[in-house]
Amino acid sequence: MNCAVVIPSYKVTHSIVELIKQIGPEVARIYVIDDACPDGSGRLVEECCTDERISVLYHLENKGVGGAVLTGYQAAIADNMDIIIKLDGDGQMDPSLIPYFIAPIAAGEADYTKGNRFFNLEDLQTMPKIRLFGNALLSLMTKLSSGYWDLFDPTNGYTAIHRVAAQSLPFEKISQRYFFETDMLFRLNTLRAVVVDIPMCAHYGNEISNMKISNLIAEFTCKHFKNFSKRIFYNYYLRDMSLASIELPLGLLLLLSGLIFGSLRWFNALPTGTPTPAGVVMLAALPMILGLQFILAFIGYDIASVPKKPLHLMKKWQR
Q1: 257 and 214, same structural domain?
Q2: Structural domains counted in the chain
Q3: Most buried residue, 1, 30, 254, 305, by CB count within 10 Å?
């Protein structure tokens, strides 16, 4: 299989040349995307790198990491590359791991692979605490919104994708900045693509991240809720209907009705201090308990529904 590497480049002149030198012969093409870099990352690569595999593409305006990656995907697809790997230009991603990201896709076991820095607990000691907390929180939200319950570390940008999966993506709809990696998972789930985590070490140098978790929590929460709502509608009502399609709305209805009824009775009795009869308590508690059970049953069904048949193999059989 022909493999290509896409490297989004923005203020990475200190590391990108050395990164390119470490990319092994298993890669046929290297696409460097100068995302309107003020430091001239693209020009630096053209001047300092003689590797014939390199193509430098320029953005006239900054589109963010997602926009740069999608530009690289389009170039690789046009050149008939089979697997496309994405590396950041800041040197945090070890190019020697590329064969591990390629292997599940080449073996027909996955459409998309991504790094997981949480696999080895000993390595987590090197990860800044704020990133550890932020990634754990985002991982939980991503499991809900994307439907990939078996994945972790959703913001990890070390990825590889099969050409068929990349071609099937709605490029114009994918978030192009910090939400890119997690939005990709949501889009891949709507395609029923198989995604596999690849264990890797957490590595941080002296670079300063532009991503501020505290400033993005509200934005990410809204986007995750939006993607979750879309995914539930697509998978459980538009494409197919099952017992889970009934369990979720019924569970939410029972849980909310019990909660609202119980809260109203509690507030009404609070000024007078009148004890609430046991029967009233049960009228509030029983719907909440049943509702929670229905929601847990839905989650169990959703977890069992993680895609297992690679998209690119099904497309091949269809041809």
Answers
A1: no
A2: 2
A3: 30
Per cent of the chain over pLDDT 70 is 91
State the amino acid at position 52 in one-letter form: E
Rounded to two decimals, the pTM is: 0.87
Say which amino acid occupies 244.
A
Task: Give the H or E element holding residue 205.
Answer: none
Distance CA 198, CA 175 (A): 23
The sign of the dihedral angle between the CA atoms of 246, 248, 250, 253 is negative
**Which residues, 6+ apart, have CB-to-CB distance to 103 below 8 Å?**
none
**104: exposed, middle or buried (C-beta count within 10 Å: 0-12, 13-18, 19+)?**
buried
Asked which of 235, 265, 283 is the last residue of a domain, the reply is: 235
Give the CATH number for residue 110: 3.90.550.10
Element (H, E) at 293: helix 278-304
> Can you tell me which residue has the tokens 């009705």?
257
Look over the chain and give the mean of its residue pLDDT values, rounded to a whole number: 88
The domain in which residue 200 lies consists of 3-235
Q: How much of the chain is in helix, strand and coil states, percent to nearest 5?
A: 55, 10, 35
Judge if 127 and 269 occupy the same domain.
Answer: no
DSSP code at position 117? T
Beta strands in the chain (DSSP E): 3-9, 29-34, 54-58, 83-86, 112-116, 159-162, 195-199
Residue type at 93?
A: M
**Are 266 and 120 in a shared domain?**
no
Task: At 14, give phi and psi (nearest 5°).
Answer: -75, -15
60 sits in which H/E element = none
Last residue in a domain, options 211, 235, 259: 235
With CA atoms as reference, report the closest residue to 119 among 152, 78, 154, 157: 152
d(CA 16, CA 41): 8
| Single-letter amino acid code for the residue at 23 | I
The mean per-residue pLDDT over the stretch 70-75 comes to 96
Q: How confident is the model at residue 234 (pLDDT cuts 50, 70, 90)?
A: very high
Give phi and psi for 7, each to the nearest 5.
Answer: -125, 105
Return the H-helix or E-strand segment holding 70: helix 64-78
